[in-house]
Design a protein that fits this description.
The protein is built from two helices and nine strands; from the N terminus they run βββαββαββββ. It has 147 residues and is mainly beta. It has a single domain (6-16, 37-140), classed as TonB (TolA/TonB C-terminal domain, 2-Layer Sandwich). The strands form three sheets. Strands 2-1-9-4-5 form a five-stranded mixed sheet, with helices on one face. It is elongated and about 50 Å long. The termini are far apart.
């Protein structure tokens, strides 16, 4: 079995001072654009691993649509930071399924990261020009902004 390292995307979630419209833990609706949307940013530079059940691939899945996680207010209040490592399967249609926490930080941060990743879409991995399913590892970094 051989792992193949390929570039994907890492999310860096930065907590800013509280603003109106920030989603609360358990909210199903994403926050509106505007001041609250500035509480999370995305930066590139991470890796994915292939799913051995999906076979080899020539081209890794490429993010088409990404959604930044909402920094949970309770985690922000207690000063919780860290990196959540998520494993997900990207289907041949580019949809995300089977999101699991490979290495968590705290239940609310883990869930916020997983909720965001479930909304991503990808250009699927390819083998010989044909789409194939692939398993990816996505680190999501939660950092509090300096006061």
């Amino acid at each position: 079995m051989m792992n193949r390292i390929v570039p994907i995307l890492v999310l860096l979630c930065v907590a800013m001072p509280a603003a109106t419209g920030v989603a609360r833990a358990g909210d199903e609706t994403p926050p509106a654009a505007g001041p609250a949307a500035a509480s999370a940013t995305a930066t590139a530079d991470t890796a994915a691993t292939k799913d051995t059940s999906a076979g080899e691939f020539d081209q890794a899945p490429t993010p088409v649509k990404t959604v930044a996680p909402v920094y949970p207010p309770a985690a922000r209040k207690r000063g919780q930071e860290g990196t959540v490592y998520l494993r997900a399967r990207v289907t041949t249609a580019g949809r995300v399924e089977r999101v699991t926490v490979a290495k968590g930080v705290a239940p609310d941060l883990d869930e916020a990261a997983a909720r965001a990743l479930r909304q991503w879409t990808f250009e699927p991995a390819r083998k010989d020009g044909k789409p194939v399913a692939a398993e990816i590892m996505i680190p999501v970094k939660f950092r509090l902004a300096a006061k």
